[in-house]
């Protein structure tokens, strides 16, 4: 009986896959006897030439603390650490998205610190690549090659993906050469709980992804790009069926900015909040159990000017459903400064839509209270310490203000919060946007001294 049930399920799955492939490809299927055999070969023959292997060479700086014994012998002015440069090589994958201009997308971590980047095409040609820009917070990098007769891949609308859609991963795992694996979309909008990157809104798939697949393509059964393969959960060091890809829409927004400006000009809404869950939905008598709850709107921010208010629940962005605050944050941040967005909200039981023009989160001189109420009276800007460490400088401070009473002083440079390194105003803002509650311990450099300012 068990064998019969298993046989029937196998037949159903095979027929479902055949229907899915037949509906997305008009190429003739090969025959085995009198039966059609499903195959992805026609689609892959068109798509795989757009996926490349990437090899890099470079040097990385390794910092080592100088033992206290040596510092004792050489005096107090001896260096606290030694910096050594070590050569390295690496492998990854990439996707050609514009054959005419030679644009290739990969992960930022694949080409990080690379002095030489070599692209290997599926036809065996090796090309030297130039890095045009990158965004480490989302792990996207844009390369360019000069070559004729190369093929690009068509981009799909990744917002149309559904859990259960068939997908195919293409890349260069372990450096063994181009490899194709298949699976389904296991989940959508995987975000901050993973801790892989600062901005996360991943497609999860069970298509086998391994080391070296980073930067490769995740395509649908039409051969259209739906994502850039980025990371895996690998407690054993290999594939366990949990892989993550950056959605193609998110990638395209970032690449367009890199092409136009040479950098990512991150969008900023100007709110703090959290996820809507069943408890909050019940307490506020909401008709939804998912979304982004707005707990505070910064004065004169994009959200304030657009009409958002504390207590609003954001349920959609540009007509697409929003399931969490992390998803909203990632999408807003990658849309780019100056973008006009339509935000669907629920306010006091009524559904409304507001139009907002996003601010620039990379603005380096800001009123500090826009970042956190405890900083009222201070002005922050990107700066550095006397020893050259990057951080956030207190450029102005009003006497008697809240920030003044906390113990901050003009000229202080904040280099960390709660043991997290902070290099600039944008990083400070992003960290505090995700911070819900609790104590904040600011690591501050004041002249040649180091101290902590605690906010409770």
Automatic annotation (TrEMBL):
It comes from the Bacteria. Substrate binds at residues 57, 109, 139, 212-214, 230-234, 269-273. One of its GO terms (biological process) is protein quality control for misfolded or incompletely synthesized proteins. Coiled coil: none annotated. SUPFAM superfamilies: PDZ domain-like (SSF50156), Trypsin-like serine proteases (SSF50494). Keywords: Hydrolase, Protease, Repeat, Serine protease, Signal. Pfam families: PDZ (PF00595), PDZ_2 (PF13180), Trypsin_2 (PF13365). PROSITE patterns: PDZ (PS50106). Residues 1-27 form the signal peptide. The active site is at 109 (charge relay system), 139 (charge relay system), 214 (charge relay system). Residues 258-349, 355-425 form the PDZ domain. InterPro entries: PDZ (IPR001478), PDZ_sf (IPR036034), Pept_S1C_Do (IPR011782), Peptidase_S1_PA (IPR009003), Peptidase_S1C (IPR001940). Belongs to the peptidase S1C family. This is Serine endoprotease DegQ. It comes from Planctobacterium marinum.
């Amino acid at each position: 009986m068990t064998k019969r049930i298993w046989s029937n399920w196998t037949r159903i799955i095979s027929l479902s896959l055949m229907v899915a492939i037949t509906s997305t490809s008009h190429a003739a299927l090969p025959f085995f006897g009198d039966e059609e055999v499903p195959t992805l070969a026609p689609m892959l023959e068109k798509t795989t030439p757009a996926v490349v292997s990437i090899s890099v060479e470079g040097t990385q700086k390794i910092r080592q603390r100088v033992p206290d014994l040596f510092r004792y012998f050489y005096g107090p002015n001896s260096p606290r650490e030694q910096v050594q440069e070590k050569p390295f090589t690496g492998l990854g994958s990439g996707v050609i998205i514009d054959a005419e201009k030679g644009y290739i997308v990969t992960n930022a971590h694949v080409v990080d610190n690379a002095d030489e980047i070599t692209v290997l095409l599926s036809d065996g040609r090796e090309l030297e690549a130039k890095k045009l820009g990158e965004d480490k917070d989302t792990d996207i990098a844009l390369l360019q090659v000069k070559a004729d007769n190369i093929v690009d891949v068509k981009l799909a609308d990744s917002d149309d993906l559904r859990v259960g859609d068939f997908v195919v991963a293409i890349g260069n795992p372990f450096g063994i050469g181009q490899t194709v694996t298949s699976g389904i979309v296991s989940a959508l909008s995987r975000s901050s709980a993973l801790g892989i990157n600062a901005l996360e809104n991943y497609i999860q798939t069970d298509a086998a992804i391994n080391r070296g697949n980073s930067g490769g393509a995740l395509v649908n059964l039409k051969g259209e790009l739906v994502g850039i393969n980025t990371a895996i959960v690998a407690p054993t060091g290999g594939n366990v069926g949990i892989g993550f890809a950056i959605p193609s829409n998110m990638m395209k927004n970032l690449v367009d900015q890199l092409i136009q400006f040479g950098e990512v000009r991150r969008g900023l809404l100007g709110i703090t909040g959290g996820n809507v869950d069943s408890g909050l939905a019940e307490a506020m008598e909401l008709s939804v159990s998912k979304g982004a709850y707005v707990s505070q709107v910064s004065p004169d921010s994009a959200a304030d000017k657009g009409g958002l208010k504390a207590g609003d629940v954001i349920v959609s962005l540009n007509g697409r459903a929003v399931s969490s605050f992390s998803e909203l944050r990632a999408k807003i941040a990658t849309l780019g400064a100056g973008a006009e967005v339509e935000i669907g909200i629920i306010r006091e039981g009524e559904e409304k839509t507001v139009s907002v023009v996003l601010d620039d989160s990379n603005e380096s001189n800001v009123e500090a209270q826009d970042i956190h109420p405890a900083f009222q009276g201070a002005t922050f800007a990107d700066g550095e310490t006397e020893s050259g460490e990057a951080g956030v400088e207190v450029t102005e401070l009003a006497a008697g203000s809240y920030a003044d009473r906390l113990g901050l002083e003009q000229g202080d440079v904040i280099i960390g919060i709660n043991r997290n390194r902070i290099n600039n105003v944008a990083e400070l803002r992003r960290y505090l946007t995700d911070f819900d509650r609790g104590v904040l311990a600011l690591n501050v450099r004041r002249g040649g001294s180091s101290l902590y300012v605690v906010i409770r």
